[in-house]
Amino acid sequence: MLTAAMKHSIMKHRIALASVLVLTAWTATAPAGGPDIRACDFTAKRGCVSGDARVTLVDGEVKRVEVDVYWCALPGRPGYTCLIDSSRGDSDATWSNEGGATLIDNTSPLKWNPNAPDRVKVTVGPEVSIELAEAQSLGRCGAGAALPLAIIIPANTAACRVRLRAP
Hints:
Largest sheet: 6 strands, antiparallel
Number of strands: 10
Shape: globular
Distance between the termini: 88 Å
Order of helices and strands: HEEEEEEEEEE
């Protein structure tokens, strides 16, 4: 026979269990938080180049890629910049997913060489890799500048790792 104290204790445990189940179900169906922005700055040891990169993720999917590269010039002269700023849904790019990576193909008629690829590849994991080996620099960069081969945004630091093209 259960005493009143035992019944009360069982009821408290049932209420606690029900509360945990409701909270778990609510958390599983709650909307995700805002965008996850991965960003870093860089200054390359070789050459006179610096810049920054940003990748915006929503629910783990790449939504925007921004790369700003600055090449300095001779003293007293302006430097050169290279820019990439593409968002999913832009009319001048086609976004696709392939093998766990996001491919962003430039479809603008202003490409320097329309017969060659003009593509940025973004791979997201603990680090974010922005591969620019197939991106055409001409049209995006001033004379004397070029996009790096790749920019890696590390998970736990504000400094990018950058691979530059051979001079």
